Amino acid sequence: MPLLRAPLCALLILNLFGVVSTSLAQQASSDTPTIRVTSRLVFLDVTVVDKKGRPVVKGLTEDDFTITEDKTPQRIFSFEAPDTHVIGANATVDDRSGKAPLTIFVLDLLNSSFEDFGYIRFMVHKYLAAQPAQLTSPAEIMVLGNKSLEMVQGYTRSRADLLYALDHIPPAIPYKKMNGFIEEQFTQSIDALQEIALQNQGVPGRKNILWVGRGGPSISSLQVLPGYLDELNEYVHYTTNTLVNSRASLFVIYPGLKTTSPVGTGSIVAAGTEIGDDDPFSGDINFGIFVNETGGKLFYNRNDVNTEIKESEELGSEYYTLTYSPPEGNVDGKFRRIRVTLRNPNLRVVTKAGYFAMDKEAAVGHRPQALINIAEAVKSTIPFEALKVTIEDIVRHPDAGTVEFTVVLNPQNLDWRPAGEHSTVDFLLAAASLNKDRDFLATRVQDLTVVADNQDPVQLAKTGARQSITIQIPRKTQTVRVVIETSANGRAGAVELNRASIDAAPQTPTPEPKLLSHPQKQPPS
Q1: What DSSP assignment string belongs to 68-124?
Q2: Whole-prediction pTM value?
Q3: Domain 3-33+367-504, CATH among 3.40.50.10090, 2.60.40.2150, 2.30.30.90, 3.40.430.10
Q4: Per-residue pLDDT tens for 276-287?
């Protein structure tokens, strides 16, 4: 029986992009998906602060603001004051009208120690417990773990639902951090930002990503071989643009982070650092740059995480929204610097720093397109049968609020590839808990590799695979849908598990966490 395991990133420069060809979207349409970086309007969510860093929410009009792009003044198309960014008294508990900002809590297990993660969860719980029974705006909770980014509770204003999901996150040992798999930590962390941005593109309003943990490790572009530097730049530039386009601001809250100056720590750059007009990723690539790019904030030299969350919420909720129509300049891929200034010199603004002027007709890169495809397929009701997928061995874990089951892949269409003395197939797998309207309540996206210990075509044609999956099942879950797509040829299979089958499954306690073995990285050839 072949073994499924997470693929390795032995070298960052060799693994920034997996090869994904045929898109799921093309099964329903022959149009090639494209990304349009410069839309008709650019939205700027602008927080105005005084000399003491306190938000200024009254007394300013459109005439107080000036916008420039690459030092060229831009005409303000529309203006919204902070008092318009609130939800009405009669709004539902899951209201996502776009009037109030959405909050995305990301608990960073991948880049945190086991002890730090326990403290992170405790402090997030302390913050949520102090909120009213119905939050003033929707929030969701995600966990970045060893293998994937998992949504454990989708957008809701219910404090009880958020606390339930938080309290039922099972413990895990961060083996990648413990064993120094820097390249994997880097790519998974940036992938997580992409997934969050893609999830929220098209959702109205501002989104505040409250990343509690260190964030991905720093990578110096000067250490990347020249032949792969273009791929690295495309990777981070696309991530920046997806965050900007989805109106997401990144706030990084790292408990216990000690720095000698507000500029940086060698692995992260503090928000507010002047980045100039050139490509901000031309040196080190780290989460501090994404903070600056998206108009967020880095918190350091403090341990009061619940207070830092509150400050992030205030900065991300008390803002003006300005729009302008960008100029039709050269689509040369260069960084376009946005600056917003105020007539009053005693006030300053915090907002996104700019975007990259990529070709508006350029196709989406392989990895982002794969994420888009599989997200669309998970939410769809259309069957995908190029891969034969079934579910077996369903078990509930009431103590964690999860369901565990085995995804079984039939040998048909697996398209094995030789790899040394073995054969492999790479997959992207997504699972989601959906409500009656097929909104995401919980998700996980994971890269997988099937390994068979032979290269015999006859034997491989009879070889399938099995993979255990665990996912949260919030109380409104009606269906769990799993989609798996091969990286080489885009063949996909889908299977659904209804609520009745979940409720009828036997119950067992959640297994205790184990220190998983992780293959040693191979030296560069």
Answers
A1: EETTEEE-EEEEE-GGGSS--TT--TT---SSSPEEEEEEE-TTS-HHHHHHHHHHH
A2: 0.72
A3: 2.60.40.2150
A4: 566 777 777 888
